[in-house]
Amino acid sequence: MKKILIIFLLGCLFGAEPGKLPNDIRWVRNSAEHAALYEQIYAVAWRQISQEAGELTTPWVIVMDLDETVLDNSLYQPLSGEVV
User: In whole angstroms, how large is the CA radius of gyration of the chain?
Assistant: First the structure.
C-alpha cells in the first residue's frame, strides 16, 4: 500500500501541469467528435447484438474492456507517467 501511495505522489509531482494536457488527451476530454464516435460505435454494436441475441434461446452476456472506453481514465494518464 505504501508503494502505491509513493508512486501516486511521485506521479503528481512530475506529471503534466494542469491546463497543459497533451493534445490527444485534450481531444478525448473536449471534442464533440470523440463523444459522437463513441456513441455511434455503441449504437451500432447494440443494434448488432440485439439482432443476434433476439435469435438466441439461451441466456447471453456481454464482456467489455472498460479501460479508455467505458471508463474515462484520461486525467489519470498524465499523473501515472504514461503520457509524455
Answer: 18
